[in-house]
Amino acid sequence: MGLLRLFSTGLIATSVAVFLPAGAAQAQEAPSDHDEIVHVLNRITFGPRPGDVDMVEKMGLHNYIEQQLHPELIDDSEVESEVAQFELLEMSPAELSKLFYEDTKRFIAKQKELAANGQAPAQAQDQPAMQMQNQNQPGQEQTGSPQLPGNIMNQINQANQWRSVAVIGQLEQAKLVRDINSNRQLQEVLVDFWSNHFNIDMKKGPCRVYKVIDDRDVIRPHIWGKFRDLLEASAKSPAMLHYLDNAGNTVQHLVSPQEQQRQAMFLKNMLGTAAPATDPTAQNETFQPKMEGGINENYAREIMELHTLGVDGGYTQQDVQEVARCFTGWTINRLTGEFIFRPHMHDNGAKVVLGHQIPAGGGIQDGETVLDILCSEPACAHFISKEMCQRFVSDDPPPALVDRIATVFQGSGGDLRAVTEAILTSPEFLSPSTFGNKIKSPLEFAVSAVRASQSTIIPKQRPPFDKLVPTMEGAAVMGRTNAADRISRAKRQSLNWHILELGEPLFACTPPTGYKEVSKIWVNPGALIERLNFALALTQQRLSDIRFDPQTILAGTDLDKPDDILNRCVNVFLQDKITDSTRNVLMKTALPAEGTSQTVDPAKLIALIIGSPEFQRK
């Protein structure tokens, strides 16, 4: 508490600078090559590591940007080997789909067991966490990674049973490994951008397993190609089809007794239950033909409002209805976990989308035509260009820049590599007015602190925690309160959990808007205190999967000279960009008074620097 009190009377008093434009926080000077390099590293990477600035100076800033624009030429095999340890992420769509239905079947069986014993049914969000709650024996201490109670083999069996929940934890951990360690930093920044643009909440049903497919087979392979291809891959993504409900978007259609029987058999085989009021073992004549289905406009609205045209993109409610009709029958094969078009669920009538006539009888081509129409609209080029400029240039990018980038988008047929290059080579991107004018998101803040401090992330923890932790964290992300409480009570939490507590749970943003690109939303006095709490946890080695050693930063520094220690830390974490007010606070709160025999506490000093207003900016 003492350090927090010092912070609240010191750095918090100067944190108003975070809310001001960069020019108001510190006097603007003509930028040096060093300043430009620091700016670029703050924008196209997850923060510079010690030595990165020197490395870019030697190879040249232009060459570095070009290298990052072509990640296929950068060796990242070491990181990919680390990620390959997450075995659930290597599964095929069919295997991942099976995981979800196995867990659902287990949950239904548990509900039946509770009902048979006269017990109240468990809430879905608390199962399986209720089977993994704290049962430590009296006097048993919680240390290290979050531990599950009871017999260790029982714990492992429980974790293995709920593997579709563990998928969440593994995907989040793999993302952090890449963000921290990948040499292809711009690629990871863009993966984060596009995953957020096409947001999918893993908490929604099978999205927790389908998001693996979306990340691996939709986002990553398409961020350097044509936007049209990325949009189509997203439209056919099982995760997106379920998240925005297009999997159930069908024209009303007649379901035969034979089809009803097949559906009932599927439910019994996959979930251990039959459809209501049906018996899958009955003969066909027990089923009566019936009408099923109906139009769902959710995806049709969001593909225009959030994915392509923007809320002011010129479409009408009639366009929403027509686009929904075009995408009827685009659904998921629950056995294979892949996209499938079902012709009998499709509305084959004529349609009109944004003034374009779509003739009757088009089948799956109706949806493809909609994708072509949306990508050719000037509003799409402008909307995508503005969002990308918001990520890389400023929260309110210059209209002239957005217009130029939109021209590149249209002229290149939506070539995303060309669009990215145009932004990163624009005068506006390298203008001194953009330096430090954006605020780091919780993800960017936490990962940049790990990178700057040369801390190392442990990809997978020692057995049995390699099984237990992803399951527990996945359960907590899904809102299972027992799991969240158990993690919170542990002495050490993972980097992933700290980012969640900072307000940005990975792959778990509930609204389809994703996290906003306007970075000021992340900053308020309470958030700054939480960021300092993270800095303290990092430097006091209270993160379960991060190894921090201040000696890697202070190597070669005279530890008997407080000013030298301060200067070294300011150089490493802030690239020597520090205001007088922040320096004064650090000298008063983290350095010993002159004439005393006290020494500098490096962990305390580094925590305060990470919590400073300057480190919040990028």
Characterization of the model:
The strands form four sheets. The protein has a two-stranded antiparallel sheet. The chain has a domain at 250-294. Mean pLDDT is 87; it is low at 16-21, 23-27, 125-150 and 274-284. Helix content is 54%, strand content 5%. It is mainly alpha-helical and 618 residues long. Strand 3 (330-333) and strand 4 form a beta hairpin. The protein starts with a helix and ends with a helix. The chain contains 32 helices and eight strands. The longest helix is centred in the first third of the chain and has 24 residues, at 93-116. The protein has helices spanning 2-9, 11-14, 16-19, 22-25, 33-44, 52-59, 61-69, 77-83, 93-116, 152-161, 163-181, 185-197, 207-219, 227-235, 238-243, 257-271, 298-308, 317-326, 365-376, 378-392, 399-411, 416-424, 442-452, 465-477, 481-489, 495-501, 525-539, 551-554, 562-574, 580-590, 602-610, 613-616; strands spanning 250-255, 290-294, 330-333, 338-341, 351-353, 356-358, 456-457, 546-547. The relative contact order is 0.14.
Radius of gyration: 27 Å
The strand count comes to: 8
Low-pLDDT segments:
16-21, 23-27, 125-150, 274-284
Strand content: under 5%
Average residue pLDDT: 87
Please outline the major beta sheet: 2 strands, antiparallel
Distance between the termini: 28 Å
Query: Given the helix and strand composition, which structural class is it?
Result: mainly alpha
Basic shape:
globular
- DSSP helix fraction: 40-55%
Kindly report the spatial arrangement of strands forming the biggest sheet.
1-2
* Total DSSP helices: 32
